[in-house]
Amino acid sequence: MLIHPQFDPIAIQLGPLAVRWYGLMYLVGFALVWIVGRYAIKTRATAPWTVQQFEDALFYGILGVIVGGRFGYVLFYKFGDFVHEPWRIFFVWEGGMSFHGGFLGVIIALWLYARKHRQRWLTVTDFIAPLVPLGLAAGRLGNFINAELWGRAASVPWAMIFPTVDRVPRHPSQLYEFALEGILLFVLLWRISAAPRPRGAVSAWFLIGYGVLRFAVEFTREPDNYLGLLALGLSMGQWLSLPMVIAGVAMLRWARASSLSLRA
Q1: For residue 123, what are the domain limits?
Q2: CB 228 within 8 A of CB 238
Q3: Nearest to 68 by CA among 19, 31, 119, 112
Q4: How far apart are CA 91 and CA 95, in angstroms?
């Protein structure tokens, strides 16, 4: 039986300025995306960009993550609360970010980038998609440090007690997501993107991979107490992941069909 270390949520205290681990993990995630993206540009012949173009696109993506993640959390998870106190939408230091909202924010931001710079949107997303799991991994570590988004009750040997929640052994679902949606998905997409693929194929595999892994992990994650389980006994995270898988399969078939038609 394991016990959560109960980390201090504040990583650095400089007088009145407090740097929290959760915010720091976002910075780590963005830094990893920047480092690995630059490495891909310098080492892969398939990379479509210069370093400057990548950094411009990354700036758009960061804005999409922050704005989309926050508004997605409000819309999908706590809409009623923010209707009564809408100004709290801007209180990002209180926490509350949604991956699916951040994902939509990135999609819109990269579309705006591609349109402004006259690039193909799927070419942009195919390059960015393998890097996204690095940011996800950092974010899930932030969740674990904060002892939030804990798992359901479990009897596995590595079950963990979160003292700030209760004394019930639970799945450390944040670490599952770190390993699956972060590390494993990055490795798979990095290998897939190493060789030339039909336009849109890498983006499609991201949708399929993330959707399937998130859907599976949600069976070990405690549903949000203000939502509980929804229709068919599925969580909000699972219902939001299903369209990603469906869209990914459709996009993959389209990418392959388009590639074959161009060769014909």
Answers
A1: 2-263
A2: no
A3: 112
A4: 8
Residues 6 or more apart whose CB falls under 8 angstroms from that of 62 comprise 30
CA distance 176 to 146: 15
Q: Give the pairing of strands 160-161 and 169-170.
A: antiparallel
| CA–CA distance, 173 with 149 (Å, rounded to integer) | 8
Q: Check whether 168 has a pLDDT greater than 60.
A: yes
E strands, 65-221, where?
160-161, 169-170
**Ramachandran angles phi, psi of 200, nearest 5°:** 95, -15
Q: For 6-54, how does the pLDDT look when each residue is reduced to its tens digit (9 = 90+)? A: 998 888 888 777 778 888 888 899 999 999 999 999 888 767 788 898 9
Q: Which residue has the tokens 């997605």?
A: 72
Instruction: Please give the model's pTM, rounded to 2 decimal places.
Output: 0.86
Tokens standing for 101?
């909202």
2-3 sheet: strands from edge to edge: 2-3, 160-161, 169-170
* DSSP H or E stretch at residue 118: none
Q: Which letter does DSSP use for residue 88 in this model?
A: G
Work out how many domains the chain is built from and give that number: 1
**d(Cα 30, Cα 62) in Å, to the nearest integer?**
8
Closest CA to 89 of 100, 74, 68: 74
Compute CA 42 distance to the chain's CA centroid, rounded to the nearest angstrom: 25
